[in-house]
Task: structure prediction
Amino acid sequence: MTANPRPQLGVCYYPEHWPEAMWAEDAREMVEMGLQLVRIGEFAWSRLEPREGQFEFEWLDRAIKTLGSAGLKVVLGTPSATPPKWVLDKFPDMLAVDAHGRPRKFGSRRHYCFSHAEYRDFAAQMAGRLAERYADNPHIVFWQTDNEYGCHDTVISYSDHARAEFRTWLKEKYGNRSINEAWGNVFWSMDYTEIDDVDLPNMTVTEPNPAHVMDFRQFSSDQVARWDLAQIRAIREHCSKPISHNYMGRVLEFDHFKLGENLEIATWDSYPLGFLEDRSDRSEAFKAQYCRMGDPDFQAFHHDLYRAVGRGRWGVMEQQPGPVNWAPYNPAPKPGMVRLWTWEAIAHGAEFVCYFRWRQPPFAQEQMHTALKRPDNTPYPVCGEIQRVADELKTYEPAAVKADIAIIFDYKSQWAWEVQPQGADFDYFKLVYAYYCAARELGQTIDILSPEHSDFREYDLILAPGLFNISKKLITSLQESNTPVIYGPRTNSKTKDFQIQQDGIARLFNEKVNLNLVESLRPAELVDLEDGGKIHIWNECLDQSSLVSLKKADGTPAMLSKDNLHYIAGWLDPETMKSTLRDIMTSTDEHGECDRVIRTHKSVFNLNYKTQTVEIIG
Ligand code: GAL
Result:
């Protein structure tokens, strides 16, 4: 095991928003607070190149020098998320187009289509120009490409450029194979004479062919990776420092594992209270209970996910420090939570936690978003909490996360079940998250793995729910690992071409299994199990007698098991899921006092998301 670097704290800073006379004092105060990293530049294009070819890098040179001389290390972002107005005037058709065929407009950010080749090259040139200028700058530690791909629903675009590049992508994918066969275009006479006849799957009378949409979703994801690669290549021509991208929470429109393969570091933006209000499936009562603490599993899930995306090298680039401005309700965190969130990230292996942002701007869209300092430069009380963590970190011995179990997470399966959910409540993220939460409540430390992972021997249990299609290679590595595996519901129920795979479950066991029927359930409709447990949301009727390890009340299989392999024929309700995992796991650690536990090779962290104090003994 390699020694982990001591985690650092940092902050996001926008020198272009403040008079230059403030920079040196800002930098001094950052260092005094115990901050070591500062990210800048990711939205500054209009001040770096106010008109085409008129470069004004001198202010950035001075900003980097001021921050660096104070002792801070700089993360420099490429500014392609905010192309200025003149860039749009240069490429008027660079805007992404929504599902109704309407172009999005200038006046906020992320207003570009990933398939616009000329803007892709133009943005990469800008990245290259920055890399050329700052390649040897001693203050810069790593790069960030763009910012938050996919935020504001920006991956999918139905532009003319997307159509043209989609056709090329289809030609490459299908070669001599018939797209009519693969998609089943005989249905409703959707046959095409040639790929150049294929349009984008929007504005159809009723739903388009799901196989068509799946290909479009894969294409749209690949376009993001292709876009990012253009910038990586441009930076690499001049500079060999690590390159990162800064991801978001529950953004699932592109395959982060694929993008991450080309980068050295993954970072993400952790807004626990914003996420609970804005993108959580939790009940109203749960939200009310946790509105000042955040969902106790949501941050952890993403820390584990981005640890995998960054292949071990990751950090939080934007940590919520106070009320944000973008959720339906924006409460302040309970005192102590920013410290908890920071330590939680560090427990999950973060190399750094940066707070968003240094000072709250009195202008524009985020004027109601708090920061470490008020617009009048008075520090918010959270600064004291941050300083405390900085002091605590001085004696912290970092170590790698010691996971007991792993969950396989697959972006394609998210798209598959969005394309054809077959029931309003079936959502892949929600399913994986339900397993994740159940395992965490049982005291487990978890790794999230991509479907390309092949060595499972170090784990006590692997969870692989809802993978729409699973490769022969993965089935074999799981069978040969001797580690218990839980599949289902819906695992391997489709072919790669998105057609029904009737023997999908049989292939997992190498045994005959008949899948008679699947059904989605209304919210109050539950299927009883023989032992008192319940299935909700999704139910599968299997016909198999020799492998049954758990039965429904009607005597039919709820779970099949063969050696270490298990298949659950439905979506278990939270309590049943927990008791089922408990039965299969070799050990659980239900401490009861604290909400969550996370183990590294040197420490055990108990995280108290409750409102009351908890005493930990032992
Ligand atoms: C992030 C974004 C930042 C800022 C922040 C506000 O999604 O990267 O630029 O907008 O949200 O919470």
Summary: The pocket of beta-D-galactopyranose is lined by residues 147-148, 151, 248, 269, 271, 318, 324, 326, 356, 366, 369 (CB under 6 Å). Residues 210-236 form the longest helix (27 residues). Residues 8-393 form a domain with the TIM Barrel fold (CATH 3.20.20.80).
